[in-house]
Amino acid sequence: ISTDGENIFLAGTTPNSILGTNMGYHDTFWIKTSLNGGTLIAKQWGDENFNIFQSSCFGAGGVFVGEGGSTPDLLGYITNKVSYLDPTTGDKVWEKTLAGAGVQAEGAACDGEGNAYLVFGSTVYKFDSLGNQIWANSSGADVQSNDGIAVKNGKVIVGRGTYGTAEIRMIEASTGDSVN
Q: Could you give the C-alpha distances from 128 to 3, 43, 53, 79, 116, in angstroms and in order?
């Protein structure tokens, strides 16, 4: 869930239909509502696979969304995508597929400069509103879960749990260098 102060944006996943026939096992959806909850725009995307919108944030006049996908048998995630949506229409302005093995998009945060920071597994990516990947920072750790991300005072803060531990990871927002 994200907001621009005047509207609420909800990105998620459904095994059912929101706007017609479900295209696969699960489709992604995006809904824009007024602050009182009235639906203004609703969009649904999918293919024959298991598509998952899991994180979003509003920044630079648009909505950044992190997406993971899998084959219908759920044996492994096959795609990681970052999309940028036009908040007035809900249309995808751009979509980027990330390299490497697919994992779930576990968090998104936007800064005041129009950038988004998205967590996929042990890697944090920074994108600008034009779709340029600015940097990627991988902890290389065996990550069980990244449970949150925030941007504050020039730092990207990621809360994560590895097998048996929990910790906070900090990254310089401008350079992508690890602080700890």
A: 18, 23, 19, 20, 6
Q: pLDDT digits over 151-163, tens only?
A: 999 999 988 766 6
DSSP 8-state symbol, 49: S
How long, in residues, is the chain?
A: 180
Q: Which residues have a Cβ under 8 Å from the Cβ of 10 and sit 6 or more positions away?
A: 1, 29, 30, 31, 32, 33, 56
Other Cβ atoms closer than 10 A to 122: 19
DSSP per residue, 87-114 = TTT--EEEEEEPSSSB--EEEEEE-TTS
Query: What backbone torsions phi and psi does residue 114 show, to the nearest 5 degrees?
Result: 90, 20
Please state whether 174 falls in left (phi above 0), alpha (psi between -120 and 50) or beta: alpha
User: What's the pLDDT tens digit per position in 35-53?
Assistant: 999 999 988 877 777 777 7
